[in-house]
Amino acid sequence: MSEVPLRGEGEESGTRRLFRGGFAIELTEGFLLALVAVLTAWSGYQAALLNTDSAVSYGTAQSLRSQSQAASTLAGQQMLYDTTTFSTWLLAADSGNQQLMQFIERRFRPEFKVAFNAWMATDPLHNPAAPPGPGAMAEYRNANLDRSMNLDRAAAAAFDRGNHERDVSDEYVRATVLLAVVLFLTALSQRFDIFAVRVGILVTAIVAFAFSAYTIVSVHG
Q1: Cα(57)–Cα(148) distance, integer angstroms
Q2: Higher pLDDT among residues 10 and 65, named by residue
Q3: What is the CA 97 to chain-centroid distance, rounded?
Q4: What is the pTM for the complete model shown?
Q5: Is 148 within 8 Å of 71 (Cβ atoms)?
Q6: Which of 7, 30, 43, 79 has the smallest count of CB within 10 Å of its CB?
Q7: Closest among 136, 195, 163 to 60, alpha carbons compared
Q8: Is 18 or 199 the better-scoring residue by pLDDT?
Q9: Which of 72, 57, 73, 53 has its CA nearest to residue 154?
Q10: CA–CA separation, 90 vs 82, rounded Å?
C-alpha cells in the first residue's frame, strides 16, 4: 500500500521554497538600493562639479575674449600710427626734406623700424620692383596683433571646453534621474506580495540600473 504524504509536509516544503525565493528577492532589493544610493550621490556630485567647471570655462573664455579685443584694438591703433608716420615720411622724401625724414624715422615704433630698414635695403626709391612699403615686408610684425590672435584661440578652446563639460554634466543629470526611477521601482516592488509581479518589477529596475551605470561609465571614461 502506497504511503500518502502528509499535507503538513507539502505545505511546509512550499512555504520553505517561498521563503527562500522571498529572501533572495529582499537581498537583491537591499543590494540594489545600496548601489543606487551610492551611485546617485556620486553622479549628482559629478554633475554639480562639471556644471561649476563649465561656468569657470565660460568665464575664462569671456575674459580671454575681452583681452583679445583689447590687444586687437591696440594693434589697430599702432598699425594706423605706422601708416600715418610712413605716409608723412614719403611726403618728406618726395620733397627732399632730409631733416624731416630723419625726424620721422626717430618716431617709428621699434617693430616698424625693423621692417622699414628691411624695406630700405631694397632701394625702394629707385627700384620699381621693391615692395610698396614696410607693411608689405615679411619683417613687419605687431606683437599685440599676434597676442590678440593667441588669446582668441585660447578663448575658443576654453569655450569649447565649457560646452563639453556642460554636455557631460547633462549626461550625469540624466543618469541621476534614471537612478531615481530605479529607486522608485525597487520601492514599488516591495509593495507586492505576488512573487511574479515583484520579480518583474525588480528585473525592470535592474535593467534601468544597468543602463544608467553604463551611461555614467561611458561619460566618465
Answers
A1: 19
A2: 65
A3: 59
A4: 0.71
A5: yes
A6: 7
A7: 163
A8: 199
A9: 57
A10: 12
Cell 613687419: give the residue: 140
Cell 617693430 sits at which residue?
Answer: 111
Cell readout for 134 is 614696410
Q: Give the separation between CA 189 and CA 200, rounded to whole angstroms.
A: 8
DSSP codes of every residue in 130-174: S-SSGGGSTT---HHHHHHHHHHHHHHHHHHHHHHHHHHHHHHHH
Please state, in angstroms and as integers, the Cα–Cα distance from residue 171 to each residue in 123, 176, 215, following that order: 65, 9, 7
Residues across the chain: 221
Contact assessment for residue 115 and residue 137, using Cβ atoms and an 8 Å cutoff: yes
Categorise residue 192: left if φ over 0, alpha if ψ from -120 to 50, beta otherwise: beta
- Cα distances from 173 to residues 55, 162, 163, 199, 216, in angstroms, run 16, 16, 15, 28, 10
The whole-angstrom separation of Cα 45 and Cα 70 is 38
All cell numbers assigned to 95: 620733397
pLDDT at position 157:
97
Q: Is residue 124's pLDDT more than 60?
A: yes
The neighbour count for residue 165, using CB atoms within 10 Å, is 20
- Distance between CA atoms of residues 45 and 195, nearest Å: 36
